[in-house]
Amino acid sequence: MQGSMDVSSGEQTPLGAFLNRIMQRSVLTADEQQAILDLPTQTVHLRGKQDFVHINEQVAYSCLVVSGVIARVGQTAKGARQITSVHLPGEMADLHSAVRPIGLGGMTALCPSTILRISHGAIRQVAARFPAIAEAFWRDCMLESAILLQWLLNVGRRDAQTRLAHIFCEVAVRLGRNRTAACQYDFPVTQEQLGDAAAMTSVHVNRSLRALHARGLLTVTRGRVTIHQWEALARAGEFDPTYLLADMEPHRQERLRISV
Amino acid sequence: MQGSMDVSSGEQTPLGAFLNRIMQRSVLTADEQQAILDLPTQTVHLRGKQDFVHINEQVAYSCLVVSGVIARVGQTAKGARQITSVHLPGEMADLHSAVRPIGLGGMTALCPSTILRISHGAIRQVAARFPAIAEAFWRDCMLESAILLQWLLNVGRRDAQTRLAHIFCEVAVRLGRNRTAACQYDFPVTQEQLGDAAAMTSVHVNRSLRALHARGLLTVTRGRVTIHQWEALARAGEFDPTYLLADMEPHRQERLRISV
DNA sequence: ATCGCTTCACGACCTATGTTATTTCCCGTA
DNA sequence: TACGGGAAATAACATAGGTCGTGAAGCGAT
């Protein structure tokens, strides 16, 4: 349990990384930034494949990803799993649970991961105290919602290869990889987990991955993704990063114009 | 353009219906309630099948459904459509766009509908002025997100009949139908639109609907849904209404405890 | 090195759902 | 009362992706 006190080195700490992300889309004053950096946290380490929040469990903490990959999962009556979102370092996996702690499904670590737990009370308090923070958090939740929306389109209406290509493009952008020519990143998830995210069988993930490889678009080997031609992969995945972009422009000038 | 002034008759007006919904999950003072009722609105009538917000269009208004059914839609490169959410009277179809006006896809009326447009500026202003309203709006957006999450699970991992059953159950609950024994409601959407929501072909919607009918679970005739046995349909659709429930309990006592 | 477990690779076969096309039903309108 | 257009109902056929089964390949622990 500690709050990062040094605002200048904020970018290096987990809370600093989170603040950084938030500020790509919202404008915050120094006070507000500090309030976020001062949130009390509790570090938790997780094994790979560890379900740490069960479906229908009601939690009192949100969880900030420090390292690894965290996923939210839903489950069918017959036990089929659907990963409904994936969270990378610097992201809050369930910020929304601060205002609505039910109906979020379970949470699991796709690989060995470290998270910071932050109590809902602290989050709601800082949001109530600083309206701009409330709006920033709200906006961050809506980014997540926009991603979810893309996933629904992806799963509902695209074929296997397109779907996977889209996912790999999205993760690349969210990891901040510059999308020019080739790039690579670590993404230590199994084909089974990939299937749970893309709503298909691990067998078919395997087939499709090899097909994408045969087309010269990307290579996935033991948790490392190599994109050979960004442009071609994005085309194959029908990927348009608009929904992920920083979007603070419309809000920059008019933050907090409280009349009266 | 009018603001409903009479707070006592609030329940009857569209804004009153919206406020009502919000208050199922959040506690608001009389002032705050009034501030919502005073939001300036603009009425718009829509034909059935009218796309009134195009994909990637950036809007300056959120839209409150007065009557009819409004849907958000995404689209594939080959033109396949995916309905990503459906909105019934009393709901705000895109409240989230107030804080994040991009990446929400298009909006369309599934049948002749009436909406109220409310400017993003007005929404953000009332939210900044009353932290409790910000939290309430944020929470309402998260309910929508929880629904979206269920849709992803539904589309990704359930078969056609289960999927449709789930949708009909959800709509029944959202329309406030009491879920005991039989019930019916108007839901004037075509099988094609149903297919766009459930991620399948209209042909297969037809097949599956007849199968559900043959199982004695429900009848769908020209925009009217009749559920014959709620329990059985809910079981067939693996429907658990938890994610839709009013959930203000944890927030009731501790609203706005701003510690300086 | 060797064991044991997990993940990856791949083949054979099966089925839920998509595709395409035609017919029937409904309902508003002339 | 007949006409016209959109939905709904069906039928025949095609296919993407699921299921089941078997090895091979990594990799960590002994």
UniProtKB/TrEMBL annotation, chains A, B:
Record's keyword terms, sorted: DNA-binding, Kinase, Transcription, Transcription regulation, Transferase
Positions of the HTH crp-type domain: 158-231
UniProt keyword Transport present: no
Pfam families the UniProt entry points to: HTH_Crp_2 (PF13545)
A GO term, aspect molecular function: DNA binding
GO biological process terms on file: regulation of DNA-templated transcription
Designated name of the protein: cAMP-binding domain of CRP or a regulatory subunit of cAMP-dependent protein kinases
